[in-house]
Amino acid sequence: MFSHGFISPSRSSNHLHRHLNVSNISSPVNIAKRSFELAGNFVYFPIVSQIMKESKPGHTELQRLQSKIIRCKRCPRLVSWREKVAEEKVARYNDWEYWGKPIPSFGDPDARLLLVGLAPAAHGGNRTGRMFTGDRSGDWLYRALYKFGFANQPQSISTDDGLQLMDCYITATARCAPPQNKLLPEEIRNCRPYLLKELQLLKNIRVIVALGKIGFDTIFDSFRTLEITSLPRRPAFGHGGEYTLNDRQTLIASFHPSQQNTFTGKLTEKMFDAVFRRARKLLDSNDSSK
Ligand code: SF4
User: Fold this and answer.
1) Residue ranges making up the domain that contains 60
2) How do residues 245-263 score in pLDDT, each as one tens digit?
3) Closest residue by Cα to residue 228 from 64, 137, 114, 92
């Protein structure tokens, strides 16, 4: 039923049923939803479990923030689209119960590498409930992260696939899937406070990789808002561009690994790898200069 080596929902859910001792839940996403429903104001669900592995104060705040994000309905157009897509689905994912809500960030709360994307894909993140999970962009991204030691595996299929990020945290310009992958300016503005809060809570970030021009502009504008960059104006976006934001943090620009870029050859694997090779080198040199 699933191509590209996808785990079928029934196989995944059987595993989780045994693990969590639940009997009336039919997919990994349902388990996430059920945990969300049961937990009231303080949410526990598998999607943010990586955030919860320790209980430092900053981690708890990040966890609370993600819990707030998944309830957000600030953008009527996006709320209606994400729910419509989740209801109608596409034939190849007809057996899935789509997540259909805002996507929380994913990764290591002590990370030094931060990735900023655009927004979830309608049948990727909006289906699986995790950033860059279950679509072609994610195939590219996690393969690169794995190659350079930021992920424990190259595949990202579903929330129960065992993927862990190491020293890496993934966030987005907006948390809800937009029609035609295009956000309106007010939707970018609506979602900005969540990113600003994350930037304040993620204390160890040294390198930021912006995936696409919108992510790039979003990061630069956010740093300006927080008054944590000395760059006077927004730099021009170009793949591989590198900018010193302040005395601790560097921004690297990358084309987004969207099919539009990867199918046309605008972004090749070699070009994408070069970005993460550079990120790794910057982090390693930061280590050795201590
Ligand atoms: S895009 Fe952001 S602000 Fe808009 S509804 Fe989704 S989570 Fe809320």
Assistant:
1) 9-288
2) 999 999 999 999 999 999 9
3) 114
Predicted confidence (pLDDT) per residue in 100-143, tens digit: 999 999 999 999 999 999 999 999 999 999 999 999 999 999 99
Cβ–ligand 1 distance for 173 under 6 Å, the answer: no
Asked, for residue 100, whether it belongs to a domain, the answer is: yes
Residue 119 near ligand 1, beta carbon < 6 Å: no
Rounded to the nearest whole angstrom, what is the distance from the C-alpha of residue 197 to the centroid of ligand 1?
A: 14
- DSSP secondary structure letters along 101-138: SPPPPEE-TT-SEEEEES---TTTHHHHSSTT-SSHHH
78 located within any domain: yes
- C-alpha 276: how far from its chain's center? 16
* Residue 270 CB contacts under 8 Å (≥ 6 apart), including other chains: none
Q: How far apart are CA 284 and CA 290, in angstroms?
A: 10
Read off the pTM.
Answer: 0.84
Domain CATH number, residue 148: 3.40.470.10
For the chain, give the percent of residues with pLDDT over 90.
Answer: 77
**Distance between CA 37 and CA 39 in Å, rounded?**
6
| 176 located within any domain | yes
Residue 75 in any domain: the answer is yes
Is the minimum distance from the CB of 72 to ligand 1 under 6 angstroms? yes
Residue of the CA atom closest to atom 3 of ligand 1: 191
What pLDDT, in 10s, does the model give residues 71-110?
Answer: 999 999 999 999 999 999 999 999 999 999 999 999 999 9
What's the total number of domains in the chain?
A: 1
Estimate to the nearest angstrom the gap between the alpha carbon of 122 and the chain centroid.
Answer: 14
User: What is the maximum alpha-carbon separation in the chain?
Assistant: 57
Element (H, E) at 59: helix 57-69
Q: Which atom of ligand 1 is nearest to the CA of 174?
A: 1
